[in-house]
Amino acid sequence: MSAQNVVYLDNNATTRVAPEVLEAMLPFFSERYGNPSSMHTFGGAVGREMREARESLADLLGCGTDEIIFTSCGTESDNTAIRSALTAQPEKRHIVTTRVEHPAVLSLCKFLERSQGYRVTYLGVDAEGRLDMQELEDSLAEDTAIVSIMWANNETGVIFPIEKIAEMTRSRGIMLHTDAVQAVGKIPMKLSETGVDMLSLSGHKLHAPKGVGALYVRRKLPYRPYLIGGHQEHGKRAGTENTTGIIALGAAAKAAKAHLPAENTTVRALRDRLENALLAGVPESRLNGHKLERLPNTSNISFKYIEGEAILLLLDQLGIAASSGSACTSGSLEPSHVLRAMGVPFTYAHGSIRFSLSRYTTDADVDYVIDNVPRIIETLRKISPYKQGVADPLSPLDSKPPCGC
């Protein structure tokens, strides 16, 4: 199936490369292939282009160009931030995070807890996916090295109060890292005023290609590089730079800055129309996540008594691409760790679908989904085994940390 035949509503998984981004990066595969570390003019010209890309990203984030380290992806950025904080403060052995983080953070925290003896506090969320700020404050200790809390949840789009969290951690002298992979380019940011110490982002979530990301590190923060072996990125991340990806990320950041108003008006309006129509048109459906404190492009809806994978299969047959929040690993029968943490009832959690829009989503796309989803749900409910007297228990996480997958 070609891209022209797909209604693509899975932008939280990845985005199409924007035309202007593709145009910016193509010359660096051919004519401008020099190594920016070389002394000759040919390589130096590439270095100048990289500096311009860094400036564009700094402008989007509201920070200094010297505070940006280019990486390969959001996962590398997350790992680098947390490991740097721990290495720079060997006397501190406590990490605070949440039960609804991306696996890039959760899996690392579980590894550090299991194999290196770190103590990890996993904060819960309420039924709307929001943090309890008092629980966060109570969790902070003398030996807390870092608090790592995402800016916006990848499944529900719920936005966490990062500015308030930063005030709390800074007053205690504790480093704050935020995985902002889903938030960058969708909501305004000015890192110079937020108090965040480190922030992770990924290019392929904002219309750049896969394989490039960045880590913001606040100026003068104690920092220890994760990759060692070269002088690149001012000694903060060794390895020959992905110049093509960096140029693309700079172009994507420039475009994202220009399109920010549309994200919070046009895209939000399309999201709301889709969401309201499905909730009104499909009985026993529910929204997962706070109605207002959410990314403008994300809607996570549960349809009772149905497997999310079955919905996705029928959507796929109609050329609609979305994601299921009903399994945290392929083939697993366990509901999403995010929905479990929110206490979403079992019979709803398994039938959750995430629709994530972008600036390329059209009214026709939304109309097509609205026209087809109710019929799909009706068809699947007729054959659902869950409607045969199944109880409807809540399924909050117990005292164990989430699976992290």
Structure summarized in a few sentences:
With 405 residues, the protein is of the alpha/beta class. It is built from twelve helices and 13 strands.
Task: Provide a descriptive summary of the structure in words.
There is one protein chain. The chain is 39% helix and 13% strand. The protein has two domains: 3-12 and 260-387, Aspartate Aminotransferase, domain 1; 19-256, Aspartate Aminotransferase, domain 2 (3-Layer(aba) Sandwich), CATH 3.40.640.10. It is of the alpha/beta class. Helix 4 links the parallel strand 3 (94-98) and strand 4. It has helices at residues 19-25, 41-61, 74-88, 103-116, 133-139, 162-171, 191-194, 243-281, 308-317, 337-341, 346-349, 363-382, and strands at 7-8, 68-71, 94-98, 119-123, 144-148, 175-179, 198-202, 213-217, 285-287, 298-303, 320-321, 323-324, 352-356.
What's the structural blueprint in terms of helices and strands?
Elements: E1 7-8, H1 19-25, H2 41-61, E2 68-71, H3 74-88, E3 94-98, H4 103-116, E4 119-123, H5 133-139, E5 144-148, H6 162-171, E6 175-179, H7 191-194, E7 198-202, E8 213-217, H8 243-281, E9 285-287, E10 298-303, H9 308-317, E11 320-321, E12 323-324, H10 337-341, H11 346-349, E13 352-356, H12 363-382
Parallel strand pairs: 1-11, 3-4, 3-5, 5-6, 6-7
Antiparallel strand pairs: 2-8, 7-8, 9-10, 10-13, 12-13
Helix pairs in contact: 1-8, 2-8, 8-12, 9-12
